[in-house]
Amino acid sequence: QVQLVESGGGLVQAGDSMRLSCAASGRTFSSWTMGWFRQAPGKEREFVAAISGIGSTYYTDSVKGRFTISRDNAKNTVYLQMNSLKPEDTANYYCAASTAPYTIRIMSTISYDSWGQGTQVTVSS
Asked: In this predicted model, what pLDDT tens digit does every residue of 93-108 receive, in sequence order?
């Protein structure tokens, strides 16, 4: 069973930077598509970014140019570097893994079979 553990959340001011990490268990991590999602109070969970096993990256429009997803397969870890943070980025951020051979709907929650517990990111104005 895949286990995902996020870290790095907290309280920052608008314009600051923050890096989230997600450590994964599993011997075939390098082949998984890894994603970051976020959920604000009263809202649905939404896609933020994803990185495929071959390193292709995907971002939602609102974070393009500000957030960067990356992975270190030697450490079984995926990162989300968040720059120029805005109050609207405030949410609980979740790491997710798609362990299937192919991930078609990479921006959809239904494509991911394992989830972390989430880490809170709060951006004050």
From this structure: 999 999 988 888 999 9
Kindly compute the dihedral angle of the four CA atoms of residues 22, 119, 43, 100, in this order, to the nearest 10 degrees: 20
Per-residue tokens: 19: 């890096």
Token pair belonging to 93: 């951020």
Three-class SS of residue 89? helix
Q: Is the dihedral of CA 11, 65, 55, 51 positive or negative?
A: positive
Q: Rounded to whole angstroms, what are the CA distances from 109 to 14, 95, 102?
A: 28, 11, 15
Q: What is the DSSP letter of 65?
A: T
**Percent share of the chain, pLDDT over 70:** 100
Q: What is the pLDDT of residues 51-92, one digit of tens each?
A: 999 999 999 999 999 999 999 999 999 999 999 999 999 999
